[in-house]
Design goal:
This protein has 185 residues and is mainly α. The protein is 74% helix and 0% strand. The chain has one domain: Orthogonal Bundle (Hypothetical protein af1432). It has helices at residues 3-18, 22-42, 48-57, 60-63, 70-84, 89-101, 113-124, 131-137, 143-161, 165-183. It is globular.
Length: 185
């Protein structure tokens, strides 16, 4: 990873810790990085720098606790960071594009290989650690509504956000286990 990306990673980590989201850095962002790197190995024609900038900046809206549209605000916050680190307008535009589309909502889906890698890595990160348990522990939902939310998120992540068949296979077993777990009464 290049020097600027390492500095951005440290910046995001420090903001996570300062905002009481150390768990989010450990549980989510490091997992997104792990999967993005694995996908980049299998898809070497993708622009690694764009993907890795997306990895570290895609959730700035959450990290900074800003209310509103997750992707839109995240892209705007990413632009500020990228300008601070003196990235070109072309790079900024490409990173904003993949952040805007990483949630894969009905309005905007990733069009580029880099955007599909970010969306896939983001979704895959939810399968390998205590992501769901940590969110459950926040107590923001009762058990029944949490399970409903988790089942819907699992389905959306697996079927709409993971763009590569080989990537879906990487988490298929865990998808099945989590799906069964959250279906228990």
């Amino acid at each position: 990873m290049n020097r600027k990306i390492n500095q951005i990673k440290k910046l995001v980590k420090s903001e996570c810790v300062a905002n009481g989201l150390g768990w989010f850095y450990d549980c989510h962002l490091l997992a997104v990085e792990k999967f993005a790197q694995e996908l980049l190995e299998k898809l070497p024609e993708a622009d690694k720098e764009i993907v890795m900038l997306g990895v570290w900046l895609h959730d700035l809206q959450r990290v900074r606790g800003i209310k509103g549209d997750h992707a839109k605000i995240g892209a705007s916050e990413a632009e500020k960071v990228l300008e601070q680190f003196k990235y070109s307008q072309e790079t900024i535009a490409r990173v904003e594009e993949i952040i805007l589309a990483h949630s894969c909502d009905t309005r905007l889906m990733p069009k580029t290989r880099e955007g599909k890698i970010l969306a896939s890595a983001d979704a895959m990160s939810h399968y390998i650690n205590d992501f769901y348990l940590t969110i459950a522990a926040t107590g923001q939902r009762d058990a029944a509504s949490f399970k409903k939310w988790a089942r819907e998120k699992l389905e959306r992540d697996y079927h709409k956000k993971i763009f590569f068949g080989f990537a879906r296979k990487m988490v298929a077993k865990r998808h099945k286990i989590l799906k069964e777990f959250f279906a228990m009464e």
